[in-house]
Write a structure and sequence with these properties.
Length: 370
């Protein structure tokens, strides 16, 4: 009895120490050179009690900061959290050549990063938002053996395909009544980065507007972002964005915009195609998709098409715009937590069944040969 008491006490002390340490690490990023000349900035909190690690991948034009509510919540639950700044952001490698922004290179970088933080033999939950969702899906395609499950936010899975922007704009206009990715036309323009940097407050207002319908009327359609910025238009920002959040976002967007826009230029130029054309487009791991009912960019209705490529898919709708994990962090955290527990329970049960089957088969074999 006394031994049990002390054992429990030691475990609790370790838990408190680890949680205290993780809270101290939530804003302290590190930088590591994963290859000569290629650095990655990241935040890492180690898992405790054999819990899995969650790999968080941000989108445009965010940063690791966009996962602040998730890293705080899940690290307190004992989960590991690895949250890198992706290419084009912060202290992470940010080349000017858009050809370097191919998914294969990014996934290779992430694999090395996992190894460098001590997760070389571990599988992870890969969680992505916006462009990070696309990167998360490529992570699963290239390395299903290192993936427990994928969780995609705001942008549904899109299989490898040779991209045609003009065709995509025509199709979205026919289906939605407006070009849901018309802003790509502006983002690929040579003067786009300069215009955004000179009108950064106007750009932030539009991205994080309290009136989510502005993304449908003044952001998504062709030429609308350019018109908004060159006219210096302003609007009220969403209340979930604090002054500290705004200052962080502004610091990221005030310079280096071209590197962030290279993500769009790379896809438009089909830099991924030579790598992805031989990939199996079927996602071999379970996927949770979380979308906002008021998101006019990552339209949740389009998520149904994922079922053609994902056998184990669950779709959850939340009452938000595009920035689901920032607008309704408690709802999103609850859904992610529920999904993780569901997957881990299923995996544990499957492992137990396979182990028992192996033992029974071994016993039967021994009986037969004896």
């Amino acid at each position: 009895m006394i031994r049990t008491y002390f054992a429990v006490t030691i475990v609790l002390i370790k838990l408190v120490v680890c949680l205290s340490s993780s809270n101290n690490n939530l804003t302290a990023t590190k930088t590591i050179e994963i290859r000569p000349g290629i650095t990655y900035e990241y935040l890492y909190v180690k898992a405790i009690n054999n819990k899995p690690t969650l790999l968080f991948l941000h989108g445009f034009p965010s940063s690791y900061h966009s996962w602040r509510h998730q890293t705080n919540y899940f690290s307190q639950q004992g989960y590991g959290c690895l949250v890198p700044n992706l290419m084009g952001y912060g202290k992470t490698y940010s080349p000017s050549n858009d050809n370097e922004y191919n998914s294969k290179a990014m996934i290779d970088h992430l694999m090395i990063l996992l190894d460098r933080v001590g997760l070389s033999n571990s599988s992870v939950f890969v969680i992505g938002h916006d462009w990070g969702a696309r990167t998360a899906s490529r992570f699963v395609l290239y390395h299903p053996e290192r993936t427990i499950s994928a969780i995609l936010l705001s942008v549904a899975y899109s299989p490898p395909v040779k991209f045609n922007l003009s065709l995509a704009l025509q199709q979205s206009l026919q289906v939605n009544g407006y070009e849901s990715i018309g802003y790509w036309e502006f983002f690929q323009a040579n003067d786009a980065a300069d215009i955004i940097e000179r009108n950064v407050d106007s750009f932030i207002d539009l991205l994080f507007a309290s009136n989510t319908t502005l993304s449908k009327t003044d952001f998504a359609p062709v030429n609308k972002v350019r018109q908004w910025l060159t006219n210096g238009k302003r609007t009220n920002r969403s209340l979930y964005m604090t002054q500290d959040d705004y200052s962080t976002v502004r610091a990221y967007l005030s310079a280096g915009m071209q590197q962030k826009l290279n993500w769009f230029k790379a896809v438009i130029a089909n830099v991924d195609w030579n790598y992805e054309k031989t990939l199996n487009a079927t996602v071999q791991r379970p996927v949770l998709y979380i979308g906002g009912s008021k998101d006019y960019i990552g339209i949740i209705g389009a998520a149904e098409r994922q079922k053609n490529y994902i056998k184990n898919l669950e779709i959850v709708e939340v009452d938000t715009g595009h920035w689901v994990m920032e607008e309704k962090p408690n709802d999103v955290n609850r859904e992610i937590d529920r999904w993780i527990k569901k997957i881990m329970t299923h995996n544990s049960a499957t492992t137990s069944f396979l182990l028992k089957s192996y033992i029974y088969s071994l016993i039967l074999y021994l009986i037969l040969i004896i």
